[in-house]
Design goal:
Blueprint: H1 8-11, H2 16-43, H3 54-78
Length: about 80
């Protein structure tokens, strides 16, 4: 999945496994976007001037990474295939 819009069906499913997968995919998509932004921020290549510091955005990324690991751990315990 490359776009958030591709997760809508999973996100709105009545099936718990599908909703967990959607949460996982959405988080990965957002993390990839933030990671790309952080790289450009460090290089001075952003097309805008962020109001947030690099450190704040990097902290957000680290929190998202921890959350992602919790989702992976839950999926493993519950026998849900993510990728």
């Amino acid at each position: 999945m490359k776009k958030l819009s591709e997760t809508i069906e999973l996100m709105t499913s009545q099936n718990y496994d599908d909703r967990l997968k959607a949460e996982y995919y959405q988080l990965k998509i957002r993390m990839n976007g933030l990671y790309d932004m952080l790289l450009k921020y460090k290089r001075g290549e952003l097309s805008f001037t962020p109001k947030c510091s690099y450190d704040l955005l990097h902290g957000q990324y680290r929190a998202m990474d921890l959350y992602l690991q919790y989702l992976v751990d839950r999926a493993e315990v519950e026998g849900i295939e993510l990728d």
